[in-house]
Amino acid sequence: MIDLDILMQFDAEEMAYKKDELILSEGKRADFYYQITKGEVKMFNITEDGKEFVQGIFSAGNSFAEPPLFGDFSYPASAAATTDASLYRLSKNRFLELLRLHPNIHLKFTQILCNRLLYKSMIMKEVSVYPPEHRILSLLGYLKNENSPDHPYHVKLTRQGIAELTGMRVETVIRAIKKLGSEKKLTLKGSKIWVG
């Protein structure tokens, strides 16, 4: 992401959040760029029946919630720390100025946003069309390609996390993972899941 020295040149401030602490709220005006230096953050929506649907999980070295800064619209989801987290926050105006002065960073953001659009498109199709096993394999395949394309990938998500990212109930995820394990489409070692 953006080098910390560059962020500091543009007056970024370091923020600390406790596990489960809200960072930004759905529907609020987008005023800041956020970049994680430690911990993990999830972006999520709450459905009408109170169920949480996770839009994405971001870890150290990642940024999140940039599209509203470019599109000048409110946050489409909330964000909260899933662990104790540290991050840098930069005002929208300074962030846009930074991008104007550093076109290589701007290009990197274009690539990141394109990859996120690809992921969203894949998940939308999965949720609306395919059975649970297919949804899980697609999600885990995407994560493997992002994190460990040439080697077996140890899935760090819990069954609850997989459920939140695929819009399914935890019980459905548990059954589907057992089935995928018995069909040798996933490798299960105790409670750990390996892909590829």
UniProtKB/TrEMBL annotation:
CDD domains from the UniProt entry: CAP_ED
InterPro entries in the cross-refs: cNMP-bd_dom, cNMP-bd_dom_sf, Env_Response_Regulators, HTH_CRP, RmlC-like_jellyroll, WH_DNA-bd_sf
Highest taxon, organism lineage: Bacteria
Domain Cyclic nucleotide-binding: 13-99
Species whose genome carries this gene: Cerina litoralis
Name of a matching Pfam family: HTH_Crp_2
Molecular function per GO: DNA binding; DNA-binding transcription factor activity
The protein, known as: Crp/Fnr family transcriptional regulator
Every HTH crp-type domain range: 130-196
Keywords recorded for this protein, A-Z: DNA-binding, Transcription, Transcription regulation
A single Gene Ontology CC term: cytosol
